[in-house]
């Protein structure tokens, strides 16, 4: 199992974590007290005392709200509480904490927001079961124009499992409990969460042994121990030989990928390209070798070289029969293969042939458009990436600001460190190359893909504004240096 420090829990798994903790002797009221107290603590840390409106819903999220109200009032803050629906509808721990609130409550109308300097959104959390009612959505819209919002667990309207966020408004701060939920990272919900703080409410991490989470936030803790290690007595061949299939019209894409592979540590990197483009590649590349492609038979012969340990096709490959044939020849070797861009689009009219040909370690790196050409685009991003991985037998990297990496066995990792400066031509080519470089060194495909996506995001973050794809490979040494100096 992957390290559960960065596990993301579904609503059902979080309920199970609560249940196991309660069964082991912690009362539900105590968990709620700790949850609300932690939210109040974060508020007091970040804002000076002021007038706060606490908006409480009919479930346990509302119960947390009553705890926050009590703690802030005890600290001398001016607190107004608004409750959705009749107060006697509250049950269990929420009813208990509502009783402990000695101040007034008002119905949940815009009047509660009058003169508020800060608003606590305790309307709905994990229990949101249907779209927000009109009046609640209207109230939230007014709240968003009135004062900064602190959301308890998730902003109301966010579906914690899927990242849908209909009717939600942007919070400045979201305080969640024990572990983050997928909705804190997936778009569009991520944009509504603001800063996310995870509070410890005394749920022991050992409950995760029973829950076996399958979804994680991308973090080096998941893959650092699997990263290729240089052996003192190795040579360039023991570091792997990465082969990139280069096209002849858009030569930049394969060159970017090749530099990504080399900087990720492949001992040798070769671009094989049509004779006509040889000069372009050879002039632009120095340590990266260039090999003429010849006909399909000579390509197959080149692939027979057992020292080649990782293959990539797609960036700048061109869509068509030659790309299709080359993909199939690569897959037939059973060696680790990355398929990107045109290699994916070339199978648009016949995805079955592609799926049936994947038997060895393989990573597909589509953006949303390429994904929809091969797979069912319905469902939330986690769901559809997992389904594609299961269907293809490959690791799927569904790119975007919230890239999801899924393995055929159901594990999934959501990436969160990619800055928007990565939305620049060619950055996906570099990513495909970094994955190739790690695969060529023998890293397991799922973890290689996760590591590459993280390194790619971190490289862009390190660089800052003005980034172009060419910058990315040369930023890897700094990112890797920082990463491994921390061990
Ligand atoms: N368990 C624990 O120990 C701990 C839990 N904690 C806290 O509990 C929260 C989860 O609580 P929860 O499960 O009670 O769900 P919650 O988000 O309050 O909403 C459920 C209520 O809303 C209603 N409702 C739903 N959608 C609606 C809509 N669109 N429009 C109108 N109504 C709607 C729904 O009605 P129903 O669907 O049943 O008709 C039900 O009444 C979690 O996020 C965390 O903050 C912490 O204290 C830590 C310890
Ligand atoms: N808004 C964004 N925020 C963060 N990362 C992004 C954003 N847009 C794109 N990316 C990342 O940039 C890369 C773009 O890849 P891709 O779409 O294949 O572009 P190209 O084909 O030009 O290389 C992917 O790694 C993607 O995850
Ligand atoms: K909430």
From TrEMBL:
<dbReference type="Pfam" id="PF03853">
    <property type="entry name" value="YjeF_N"/>
</dbReference>
<dbReference type="InterPro" id="IPR030677">
    <property type="entry name" value="Nnr"/>
</dbReference>
<feature type="binding site">
    <location>
        <position position="61"/>
    </location>
    <ligand>
        <name>K(+)</name>
    </ligand>
</feature>
<keyword id="KW-0067">ATP-binding</keyword>
<feature type="binding site">
    <location>
        <begin position="125"/>
        <end position="131"/>
    </location>
    <ligand>
        <name>(6S)-NADPHX</name>
    </ligand>
</feature>
<dbReference type="InterPro" id="IPR029056">
    <property type="entry name" value="Ribokinase-like"/>
</dbReference>
<dbReference type="GO" id="GO:0110051">
    <property type="term" value="P:metabolite repair"/>
</dbReference>
<keyword id="KW-0521">NADP</keyword>
<feature type="binding site">
    <location>
        <position position="121"/>
    </location>
    <ligand>
        <name>K(+)</name>
    </ligand>
</feature>
<comment type="function">
    <text>Catalyzes the dehydration of the S-form of NAD(P)HX at the expense of ADP, which is converted to AMP. Together with NAD(P)HX epimerase, which catalyzes the epimerization of the S- and R-forms, the enzyme allows the repair of both epimers of NAD(P)HX, a damaged form of NAD(P)H that is a result of enzymatic or heat-dependent hydration.</text>
</comment>
<comment type="similarity">
    <text>In the C-terminal section; belongs to the NnrD/CARKD family.</text>
</comment>
<feature type="binding site">
    <location>
        <position position="429"/>
    </location>
    <ligand>
        <name>(6S)-NADPHX</name>
    </ligand>
</feature>
<keyword id="KW-0511">Multifunctional enzyme</keyword>
<dbReference type="GO" id="GO:0005524">
    <property type="term" value="F:ATP binding"/>
</dbReference>
<feature type="binding site">
    <location>
        <begin position="60"/>
        <end position="64"/>
    </location>
    <ligand>
        <name>(6S)-NADPHX</name>
    </ligand>
</feature>
<dbReference type="InterPro" id="IPR000631">
    <property type="entry name" value="CARKD"/>
</dbReference>
<feature type="binding site">
    <location>
        <position position="153"/>
    </location>
    <ligand>
        <name>(6S)-NADPHX</name>
    </ligand>
</feature>
<comment type="function">
    <text>Bifunctional enzyme that catalyzes the epimerization of the S- and R-forms of NAD(P)HX and the dehydration of the S-form of NAD(P)HX at the expense of ADP, which is converted to AMP. This allows the repair of both epimers of NAD(P)HX, a damaged form of NAD(P)H that is a result of enzymatic or heat-dependent hydration.</text>
</comment>
<feature type="binding site">
    <location>
        <begin position="399"/>
        <end position="403"/>
    </location>
    <ligand>
        <name>AMP</name>
    </ligand>
</feature>
<keyword id="KW-0520">NAD</keyword>
<keyword id="KW-0479">Metal-binding</keyword>
<feature type="binding site">
    <location>
        <position position="316"/>
    </location>
    <ligand>
        <name>(6S)-NADPHX</name>
    </ligand>
</feature>
<dbReference type="InterPro" id="IPR004443">
    <property type="entry name" value="YjeF_N_dom"/>
</dbReference>
<dbReference type="InterPro" id="IPR036652">
    <property type="entry name" value="YjeF_N_dom_sf"/>
</dbReference>
<feature type="domain" description="YjeF N-terminal">
    <location>
        <begin position="14"/>
        <end position="209"/>
    </location>
</feature>
<feature type="binding site">
    <location>
        <position position="253"/>
    </location>
    <ligand>
        <name>(6S)-NADPHX</name>
    </ligand>
</feature>
<comment type="similarity">
    <text>Belongs to the NnrE/AIBP family.</text>
</comment>
<dbReference type="GO" id="GO:0052856">
    <property type="term" value="F:NAD(P)HX epimerase activity"/>
</dbReference>
<keyword id="KW-0413">Isomerase</keyword>
<feature type="binding site">
    <location>
        <position position="367"/>
    </location>
    <ligand>
        <name>(6S)-NADPHX</name>
    </ligand>
</feature>
<keyword id="KW-0630">Potassium</keyword>
<dbReference type="InterPro" id="IPR017953">
    <property type="entry name" value="Carbohydrate_kinase_pred_CS"/>
</dbReference>
<dbReference type="Pfam" id="PF01256">
    <property type="entry name" value="Carb_kinase"/>
</dbReference>
<feature type="binding site">
    <location>
        <position position="428"/>
    </location>
    <ligand>
        <name>AMP</name>
    </ligand>
</feature>
<comment type="subunit">
    <text>Homotetramer.</text>
</comment>
<dbReference type="GO" id="GO:0046496">
    <property type="term" value="P:nicotinamide nucleotide metabolic process"/>
</dbReference>
<keyword id="KW-0547">Nucleotide-binding</keyword>
<keyword id="KW-0456">Lyase</keyword>
<dbReference type="GO" id="GO:0046872">
    <property type="term" value="F:metal ion binding"/>
</dbReference>
<feature type="domain" description="YjeF C-terminal">
    <location>
        <begin position="219"/>
        <end position="483"/>
    </location>
</feature>
<feature type="binding site">
    <location>
        <position position="156"/>
    </location>
    <ligand>
        <name>K(+)</name>
    </ligand>
</feature>
<protein>
    <recommendedName>
        <fullName>Bifunctional NAD(P)H-hydrate repair enzyme</fullName>
        <ecNumber>4.2.1.136</ecNumber>
        <ecNumber>5.1.99.6</ecNumber>
    </recommendedName>
</protein>
């Amino acid at each position: 199992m992957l390290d559960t420090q960065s596990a993301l829990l579904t609503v059902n798994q979080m309920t199970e974590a609560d249940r196991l903790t309660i069964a082991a002797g912690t009362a539900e009221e105590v968990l709620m007290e700790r949850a609300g107290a932690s939210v109040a603590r974060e508020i007091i840390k970040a804002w000076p005392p002021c007038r706060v409106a606490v908006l409480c819903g009919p479930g346990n999220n509302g119960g947390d709200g009553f705890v926050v109200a009590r703690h802030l009032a005890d600290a001398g803050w001016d607190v107004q509480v608004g409750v959705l629906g009749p107060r006697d509808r509250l049950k269990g721990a929420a009813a208990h904490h509502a009783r402990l609130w000695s101040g007034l409550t008002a119905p949940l109308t815009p009047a509660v927001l009058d003169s508020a300097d800060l608003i606590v959104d305790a309307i709905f959390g994990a229990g949101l079961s249907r779209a927000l009612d009109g009046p609640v959505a209207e109230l939230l819209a007014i709240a968003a124009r009135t004062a900064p919002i602190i959301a308890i667990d998730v902003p109301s309207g966010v579906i914690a499992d899927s990242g849908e966020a209909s009717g939600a408004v942007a919070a400045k701060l979201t305080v969640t409990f024990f572990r983050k939920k997928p909705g804190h990272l997936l778009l569009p919900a991520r944009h509504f969460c603001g800063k996310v703080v995870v509070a410890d409410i005394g749920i022991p991490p050992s409950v995760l042994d029973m829950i076996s989470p399958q979804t994680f936030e991308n973090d080096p803790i998941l893959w650092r121990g699997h990263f290729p290690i240089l052996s003192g007595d190795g040579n360039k061949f023991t570091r792997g030989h990465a082969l990139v299939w280069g096209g002849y019209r858009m030569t930049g894409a394969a060159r970017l990928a090749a530099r990504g592979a080399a900087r990720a540590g492949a001992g040798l990197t070769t671009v094989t390209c049509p004779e006509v483009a040889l000069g372009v590649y050879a002039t632009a590349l120095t340590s990266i070798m260039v090999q003429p492609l010849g006909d399909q038979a000579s390509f197959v012969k080149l692939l027979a070289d057992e020292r080649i340990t990782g293959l990539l096709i797609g960036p700048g490959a061109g869509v068509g029969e030659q790309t299709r044939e080359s993909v199939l020849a690569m897959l037939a070797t059973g060696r680790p293969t990355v398929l990107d861009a045109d290699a994916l689009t070339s199978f648009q009219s016949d995805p079955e042939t592609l799926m049936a040909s994947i038997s060895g370690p393989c990573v597909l790196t589509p953006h949303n458009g390429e994904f929809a050409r091969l797979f069912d685009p319905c469902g939330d991003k986690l769901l559809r990436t997992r389904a594609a991985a299961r269907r293809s037998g490959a690791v799927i990297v569904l790119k975007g600001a919230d890239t999801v990496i899924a393995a055929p066995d159901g594990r999934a990792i959501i990436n969160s460190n990619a800055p928007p400066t990565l939305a620049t031509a060619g950055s996906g080519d570099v990513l495909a190359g970094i994955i190739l470089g790690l695969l060529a060194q023998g890293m397991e495909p799922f973890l290689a893909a996760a590591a590459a996506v993280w390194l790619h995001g971190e490289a862009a973050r390190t660089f800052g504004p003005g980034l172009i794809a060419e910058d990315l490979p040369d930023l890897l040494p700094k990112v890797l240096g920082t990463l491994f100096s921390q061990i």
